[in-house]
Specification:
- One of its GO terms (molecular function) is DNA binding.
- The chain contains 40 helices and nine strands.
- By secondary structure, the chain is mainly α.
- The strands form four sheets. Strands 1-4-5 form a three-stranded parallel beta sheet, covered by helices on one side. A two-stranded antiparallel ribbon has the order 2-3. Strands 6-7 form a two-stranded antiparallel sheet.
- The two termini are 44 Å apart.
């Protein structure tokens, strides 16, 4: 224990002050940091800070203690009189002993990244930061322990001086699990640990059952306050993935474990027998959660000749990024008459390998094997559409039925052991058809496209079978980019509640889609290049790539002038022009077009800046994406002749009005109009950063803008939240900065800004500032 010294304050009886504050005149966190970074402290020992007479400490000293507690890096003990203001402030009664109750806020993503950079001695990628933050729920101790474990087990490594995640953790270390269990028992006691473990083995326990089985005040609420349990109306579950895995995989057996996937996995981990039916059900459930090593571990309980074991192991290979190894497993199973294996073969050829000839063969085999089975017809139709799109994209004709290879003669032979796969072929077919419909309408600019895309966007991503999830989400994200470019390309509701292991398996594809959206929304080049370096490091780390291929990554790099692909792609005039329909190659060609147009525009070669020539006539919607991207990224840097050419092309392609207004104002030199247009663009395209890029000029432009003065009582028209947003707009904060300060989403800020504009009958931030100034509204 370390006693933190304090001293009496002269002239203030019964008041003390921490001595460490004598060396700091700034914020409390500087003093707290000084205490935490003591070079004499043993890094391997848990530090305990003791503050005597805490009830006598002044406010600055209490602020230091608050910073130490929130850091969650050390144990803090306070001593005070039982009737003091400090004890009364923190004591509570819930049919439990009185005591200190503090709500510890988890680390933010930025704080997590800083901690990991210190621990790993290299900056972590966004993928690694997000994964470790999710698994540890932002708890510093769990975060650091998991990072050290990743280094020791080899799933955290280094690429290009960045710490990256190299693969999915297996969570199969029984010794580490038992050690975690013992640490929990020491800290929370045996009764609380038994309750926590019972919840973990159920996966999610209904709330009414948990309230009846456990003592709510002594057990459930205490575990929730400790950050170990999550209590929601749907049920009670273990909050941190690190704890959940330890509670399940520890070798200390639980009597009569439940028949849930977690319970069956625990039974198998302690060496007890499980039934074949339980092994099949549990293996598929673990696969859907992205826990591939555990799914294989459970599948080993099945006989080697069981077709469902081979199918499950093949799906693990497919999800892990080894489609050809999966095919080698599936071919003999399909030849024995297994419909699931045949469907998976066709899916791999169409969505992963993009092999048109083999795809025709596998589709023919699947159709012959399925006959009129209704549960497979939607899947066959979806794969047929994908196959035709591939043929179109690659410039080849779809083979006629007479050209297709005949079905395998073994395709209808009986299966040795009928597979009882949990893979929902009918549901997978429906999802793929809906996604294809959404993309087709978006690419074809159908009037119903926004409604169709919005409807299919209501799906829950983790309900889509994992074997096709990456392809489905990339296709649907592309449809959203074409139809709803101002909105998030991957809505938060898609991934709400998604297990961290599953999200990790598609993180590279997700990061690429997010960067594509950021680039098309006009995000700054420096920020895009930082994203690109992060994406390159994580890509080369070896995680499953999903739909992502190196040519697409090279095209992204080329479009942001990253420098890695100049030798590979060559001069812009020699890059082949080609466009397709649905595969990632289409995006590669579009991104190459962005890079080419920007390069020509930067060199002032106006005669060559022609978006229509870069992309085929069928790609009208992609042309609009390209021209919008070029305008948002080059509005300040490009010269007037080039902007005039872009304006003409933008009008021909029916680009959004706010983009056209911005171009017109820039060309005419109308400063107030340009400021107002930039504000509108920032509302509709918050990632463009135009509002920040002209920040130095906005004050003059605001004074120059003419506005109408109205009564001072108009502030009463705004809600409390709208007033907070308006005050921050007055200060010149960007939408992202407002969202961060109020801890709400950017879309919520946009909604409040629109409501404010409507209620006050104004059109821009310029008018809002003038209105607030004219009516003498108080600044915050």
């Amino acid at each position: 224990m370390e006693l933190v010294p304090s001293q009496e304050i002269q002239g203030a009886p019964l008041t003390r002050r921490l001595e460490v504050l004598d060396n700091f005149s700034g914020p409390a966190h500087e003093a707290a940091t000084s205490l935490l970074s003591d070079p004499a402290a043993d890094p391997d020992l848990e530090r305990i800070f003791v503050f005597a007479h805490a009830d006598l400490l002044d406010d600055e000293s209490l602020a230091v203690i608050d910073e130490l507690v929130r850091s969650q890096r050390i144990v803090v003990l306070l001593s005070s009189m039982a009737s003091s203001h400090l004890a009364l402030r923190f004591a509570r009664v819930l049919n439990s002993p009185r005591g200190l109750h503090l709500e510890l806020a988890p680390l933010s993503l930025e704080e997590t990244q800083d901690r990991l950079a210190q621990q790993l001695e290299e900056p972590p990628t966004a993928a690694l930061t997000r994964y470790l933050h999710t698994c540890s729920d932002g708890a510093p101790e769990s975060l650091m322990r998991l990072a050290r474990r990743g280094l020791a087990e080899g799933w955290i490594g280094s690429v290009d001086a960045r710490s990256v995640v190299l693969g999915s953790p297996s969570w199969m270390d029984h010794l580490e699990a038992q050690a975690s269990l013992d640490r929990l028992r020491t800290r929370i006691g045996g009764i609380a640990l038994d309750a926590l473990r019972a919840v973990a083995l159920r996966g999610e326990m209904p709330l009414d059952e948990a309230m009846s089985v456990f003592q709510p005040h002594r057990t459930l609420f205490s575990l929730e306050e400790s950050g170990l349990l999550m209590i929601r109306p749907e049920g009670v579950s273990v909050r941190r993935e690190t704890h959940r895995q330890a509670l399940i995989m520890a070798r200390e057996p639980v009597s009569d474990p439940p028949s849930t996937p977690e319970g069956v996995l625990h039974t198998r981990s302690v060496g007890a027998e499980i039934t074949s039916e339980a092994a099949r059900r549990t293996g598929w459930a673990l696969l859907e959660r992205g826990l591939l090593a555990q799914a294989r571990f459970v599948a080993e309980a099945l006989p080697t000749q069981d077709a469902s074991r081979g199918t499950l192991e093949a799906c693990c290979d497919l999800v892990a990024g080894a489609p050809r190894r999966a095919l080698r497993q599936l071919v003999p199973i399909a030849a024995a008459g297994d419909l699931t294996a045949a469907a998976l073969i066709a899916l791999i050829h169409a969505t992963v390998l993009e092999d048109t000839r083999a795809g025709a063969q596998s589709l023919s085999n699947l159709s012959a094997m399925a006959g009129q089975a209704p549960e497979v017809q939607d899947l066959i139709e979806a794969l047929r559409q994908i196959h035709l799109s591939l043929c179109e994209d690659m410039g080849s004709e779809a083979p006629d039925e007479s050209d297709q290879l005949p079905p395998s003669t073994e395709a209808t032979s009986p299966c040795r052991t009928p597979a009882t796969s949990a893979l929902d072929l009918a549901g997978m077919g429906r999802v793929l058809l809906q996604v294809l419909e959404a993309f087709s309408e978006a690419a074809g600019q159908s009037p119903s496209a926004p409604a169709t895309v919005a409807k299919i966007s209501e799906i829950s991503f983790h309900d889509v079978p994992i074997v096709c999830a990456s392809w489905a989400v990339s296709c649907l994200a592309a449809a959203r980019l074409l139809t709803l470019p101002q909105e998030d390309i991957i809505p938060e509701r898609w991934v709400r509640g998604e297990p961290p292991g599953r999200s990790l398996l598609r993180v590279n594809a997700t990061e690429a889609l997010e960067m594509l959206h950021a680039m098309m929304s006009g995000e700054g080049t420096d920020d895009l290049r930082r994203r690109m370096e992060d994406l390159w490091a994580q890509y080369e780390g070896g995680l499953p790539q999903g739909f992502l291929r190196r040519p697409l990554l090279e095209a992204l790099d080329f479009a942001v002038e990253g420098g890695r692909t100049e030798d590979l792609l060559g001069p812009t005039e020699y890059i082949p022009r080609r466009s397709g329909s649905i595969t990632e190659a289409s995006w590669g060609h579009m991104l190459t077009a962005v890079g080419r147009v920007l390069g020509l525009a930067a060199r002032g070669d106006v005669s060559q800046v022609d978006v229509a020539r870069e992309l085929a006539p069928a790609c009208l919607v992609m042309r609009r994406l390209v021209i919008r991207c070029v305008v948002l990224r080059g509005i300040h840097e490009l010269d007037a002749p080039t902007l005039a050419v872009l304006e003409a092309q933008a009008r021909a392609l029916d680009v959004e009005d706010e983009i056209l207004d911005l171009l017109t104002a820039r060309l005419t030199g109308d400063a107030p109009r340009f400021a107002m247009a930039a504000e509108l663009v920032e509302i509709h395209w918050p990632r463009s950063g135009l509002g920040r890029s002209i920040g130095g000029r906005l004050s003059d432009l605001r004074r120059a803008a003419e506005v109408t003065t109205k009564t001072a009582g108009q502030r009463d028209l705004l809600s409390a939240r709208e007033q907070e947003v308006a005050d921050r707009v007055f200060q010149g904060l960007s939408l992202a900065e407002i969202a961060d300060s109020l801890r709400i989403s950017i879309r919520t800020v946009q909604s409040h800004v629109r409501n404010t504009y409507r209620k006050l009958d104004i059109r821009s931030r310029t008018e809002l500032r003038a209105r607030l100034t004219a009516t003498s509204l108080d600044r915050p």
